[in-house]
Amino acid sequence: MLSPRLLLSVLLASLLPACQAGNQGVATNPLAEARQRWADQGLEHYRYQARQQCYCGPKALQPASILVNGQQARLEVPDNQELALLARSVEAWFALIEEKQRKGWHQVDVDYHPQWGYPRHIRLDFDPRMADDEQQYWIRDLTPIPANR
How far apart are CA 96 and CA 94, in angstroms? Predict the structure, then answer.
């Protein structure tokens, strides 16, 4: 007969691999984690600089300053409507990323801000065999601003 101490040791030793196996293969969801970090900031009014790279007109490649008031985003200088696509709230950028992932785009690579969670660089490619369908977006200098600006 085994001593209670030895029996407990054997039982614990047999459970340890099961606990470790349960942690292996746990997929992290970078989008969900970034969204949570962003939500934790509680920012509703902010400004950021955005830029895109695409196969589009030269006016669309200029940097844009975006103002966000709640979920309403607008170009700070609205004279270049080719930049209107960049006027999104951070949540709208998350929705774009989620949509492309859900639709199974070939490449949806995102670099998220380590503290605030917003996407800093988004690389999209619908089909690796198709030329000129790649898109890239950069978001930088995100700064909180007073409400109703």
Answer: 5
The answer to whether 35 and 94 are in contact (CB under 8 A) is yes
Residue type, 117: G
Residue 114 pLDDT class (50, 70, 90 cuts):
very high
Q: Tokens 């990323």 appear where?
A: 97
The residue written with tokens 């984690």 in the block is: 33
Q: What is the pLDDT of residues 47-58, one digit of tens each?
A: 999 998 866 765
Distance CA 78, CA 49 (A): 14
Answer for the pair 121, 135: CB distance below 8 angstroms, yes or no: no
pLDDT digits (tens, 9 = 90+) for 18-39: 444 444 555 689 999 999 999 9
What does the alpha-carbon distance between residue 84 and residue 81 come to, in Å, rounded to a whole number?
A: 5
